[in-house]
Write a structure and sequence with these properties.
The complex is a heterodimer of chains A (about 140) and B (about 100). Chain A is mainly alpha-helical. The radius of gyration of chain A is 22 Å and the shape is elongated. Chain B is mainly α and about 100 residues long. Chain B is built from 3 helices and no strands. The chains are: A mainly alpha (about 140), B mainly alpha (about 100). At the A-B interface, helix 1, helix 3 and helix 4 of A face helix 1 and helix 2 of B.
């Protein structure tokens, strides 16, 4: 294993650890859940990506073969992390009904997608008074 | 160099896990706790990856060197007792 490769692995590990730490600090320090959601979903995912890249480079330099496990972990992690963040945000919006009052009008015949049902295929205009039925 | 980088990586990930635990216990809403557990899972994945790198690198640095030393030692110790060598010595000493 050459020194350049070792240095690259070390650099990736340090960058990944820094991103993990920054993400968790952001999750503790930020004031609101919707802002708190940003830190782990972006910084922490990037930190794990750095560690995975370090592992890939390390084992590629060690054995001369490209290991596919890290690619799979990266793919599935990058697929599931935004989905979980999206649904955490939606659940938070459903828990706090007072957030609906500050919403601007959609400019369309139907309401906001998180709070009002999507218009069905048979009724393209939707129902505008559905918003009042919820409250 | 990798050793020190791994030390830093372990320290950062462990500190991040502690911060997540603080948010998990403290979190005012349920969604804060869900988010904390989600982040803890990602941090634990990172810890496992770093652990894998550490296992292989210490295996290289320490394990193989130790195996080589033991084999050298045994080789030096057991060489005089080797049957072919002993027979040679006996036959050469007393004809």
């Amino acid at each position: 294993m050459t020194f350049v490769l070792e240095l690259l692995v070390s650099l990736l590990i340090v960058a990944g650890g820094a991103f993990l730490l920054i993400g968790s600090i952001g999750m503790v320090k930020l004031p609101d859940l919707l802002t708190r959601l940003h830190a782990p979903t972006k910084a922490t995912t990037l930190g794990v990506g750095g560690a995975l890249a370090a592992s890939m480079v390390f084992f590629a330099g060690l054995e001369g073969t490209l290991s596919i496990h890290e690619v799979l972990i990266t793919a599935f992690l990058f697929m599931t992390a935004p989905i979980s963040a999206h649904f955490i945000a939606k659940a938070h919006l459903h828990e706090h009904t007072e957030l609906r009052d500050g919403l601007p009008p959609t400019g369309r015949p139907y309401g906001w997608s998180t709070f009002d049902a999507a218009p069905g295929p048979g009724e393209p205009d939707g129902e505008d008074d559905r918003r009042g039925a919820h409250d | 160099v990798i050793e020190y980088a791994l030390q830093f990586g372990f320290a950062a990930a462990s500190l991040a896990l502690l911060l997540n635990l603080w948010r998990l216990l403290r979190g005012p809403a349920l969604m804060d706790r869900v988010l904390a557990v989600d982040t803890m899972v990602i941090n634990i994945i990172a810890l496992i990856i770093l652990f894998g790198i550490q296992q292989r690198s210490t295996d290289l640095l320490r394990g193989r060197a130790a195996v080589r030393d033991v084999r050298l030692h045994l080789h030096r110790r057991l060489l005089p007792l080797h049957p072919a060598r002993r027979r040679h010595r006996v036959s050469g000493g007393r004809p």
